[in-house]
Amino acid sequence: MKYTAVGRSESMALSVYVGRAGTGKTQACFEHVKQVIESNPGEPILYIVPDSATYTIERSLAEFMPQGRFYHRSRSGF
Protein backbone atom coordinates (compact mmCIF):
# COMPACT_ATOMS: atom_id res chain seq x y z
CA MET A 1 0.00 0.00 0.00
CA LYS A 2 1.18 3.51 -0.76
CA TYR A 3 0.07 6.55 1.23
CA THR A 4 0.59 10.07 -0.06
CA ALA A 5 -0.25 13.33 1.71
CA VAL A 6 -0.59 16.29 -0.64
CA GLY A 7 -0.84 19.96 0.33
CA ARG A 8 -0.34 19.45 4.04
CA SER A 9 -1.39 22.52 6.01
CA GLU A 10 -3.23 23.13 9.24
CA SER A 11 -6.47 23.87 7.43
CA MET A 12 -6.42 21.32 4.60
CA ALA A 13 -4.75 18.12 3.46
CA LEU A 14 -5.40 15.55 0.77
CA SER A 15 -4.49 11.97 1.58
CA VAL A 16 -4.37 9.28 -1.11
CA TYR A 17 -4.14 5.55 -0.39
CA VAL A 18 -3.20 3.28 -3.30
CA GLY A 19 -2.67 -0.47 -3.32
CA ARG A 20 -3.96 -3.87 -4.29
CA ALA A 21 -6.89 -5.53 -2.58
CA GLY A 22 -6.08 -6.70 0.93
CA THR A 23 -3.16 -4.33 1.56
CA GLY A 24 -4.93 -2.37 4.33
CA LYS A 25 -6.13 0.76 2.50
CA THR A 26 -9.56 0.83 4.12
CA GLN A 27 -8.22 0.20 7.62
CA ALA A 28 -5.55 2.89 7.16
CA CYS A 29 -8.19 5.36 5.94
CA PHE A 30 -10.46 4.58 8.89
CA GLU A 31 -7.55 5.07 11.32
CA HIS A 32 -6.73 8.40 9.65
CA VAL A 33 -10.36 9.57 9.86
CA LYS A 34 -10.48 8.58 13.54
CA GLN A 35 -7.24 10.46 14.22
CA VAL A 36 -8.52 13.62 12.50
CA ILE A 37 -11.81 13.48 14.42
CA GLU A 38 -10.01 13.00 17.75
CA SER A 39 -7.38 15.69 17.18
CA ASN A 40 -9.59 18.25 15.37
CA PRO A 41 -13.23 17.82 16.44
CA GLY A 42 -15.54 19.42 13.90
CA GLU A 43 -12.99 19.30 11.09
CA PRO A 44 -14.85 18.42 7.87
CA ILE A 45 -13.81 15.18 6.19
CA LEU A 46 -14.53 14.18 2.60
CA TYR A 47 -14.10 10.46 1.96
CA ILE A 48 -14.30 9.62 -1.78
CA VAL A 49 -15.07 6.03 -2.79
CA PRO A 50 -16.49 4.29 -5.88
CA ASP A 51 -20.30 4.54 -6.12
CA SER A 52 -20.65 0.79 -5.65
CA ALA A 53 -18.97 1.03 -2.23
CA THR A 54 -20.64 4.11 -0.69
CA TYR A 55 -23.16 2.32 1.54
CA THR A 56 -20.73 -0.40 2.61
CA ILE A 57 -17.98 2.09 3.49
CA GLU A 58 -20.34 4.38 5.40
CA ARG A 59 -21.68 1.47 7.45
CA SER A 60 -18.19 0.01 8.05
CA LEU A 61 -16.83 3.39 9.14
CA ALA A 62 -19.72 3.86 11.57
CA GLU A 63 -19.02 0.41 13.06
CA PHE A 64 -15.29 1.18 13.30
CA MET A 65 -15.70 4.47 15.15
CA PRO A 66 -16.00 4.56 18.96
CA GLN A 67 -19.63 4.45 20.08
CA GLY A 68 -20.58 3.30 16.56
CA ARG A 69 -21.06 6.75 15.10
CA PHE A 70 -19.23 9.68 13.58
CA TYR A 71 -19.98 13.27 12.74
CA HIS A 72 -18.67 16.00 10.45
CA ARG A 73 -18.00 13.75 7.55
CA SER A 74 -19.10 13.64 3.97
CA ARG A 75 -18.91 10.58 1.75
CA SER A 76 -18.95 10.96 -2.01
CA GLY A 77 -18.93 8.38 -4.76
CA PHE A 78 -17.59 8.57 -8.30
Detailed description of the structure:
The protein has 78 residues and is an alpha+beta fold. It has helices spanning 25-39, 54-64; strands spanning 2-6, 14-18, 45-49, 73-77. The strands form 2 sheets. A two-stranded antiparallel ribbon has the order 1-2. A two-stranded parallel ribbon has the order 3-4. β1 and β2 (14-18) form a beta hairpin. The model has no long low-confidence stretch (mean pLDDT 77).
Helix-strand sequence: EEHEHE
Please give the largest β-sheet: 2 strands, antiparallel
Total helical elements: 2
Decide which structural class fits the backbone: alpha+beta
The strand order across the widest sheet is 1-2
Rough shape?
A: globular
Q: What percent of residues are in strands?
A: 25-35%
Fraction in helix: 25-40%
In angstroms, what separates the terminal alpha carbons? 21 Å
DSSP summary, beta strand count? 4
Q: Using only CA atoms, what is the Rg?
A: 12 Å
Unreliable runs, pLDDT <50, ≥5 residues?
Answer: none
The overall average pLDDT, rounded, is: 77
Summarize this structure as a short list of keywords or feature phrases.
78 residues, alpha+beta, two-stranded antiparallel sheet, 2 helices, globular
Concise synopsis of the structure shown:
The protein has helices at residues 25-39, 54-64, and strands spanning 2-6, 14-18, 45-49, 73-77.
Secondary-structure map:
Layout: E1 2-6, E2 14-18, H1 25-39, E3 45-49, H2 54-64, E4 73-77
Parallel strand pairs: 3-4
Antiparallel strand pairs: 1-2
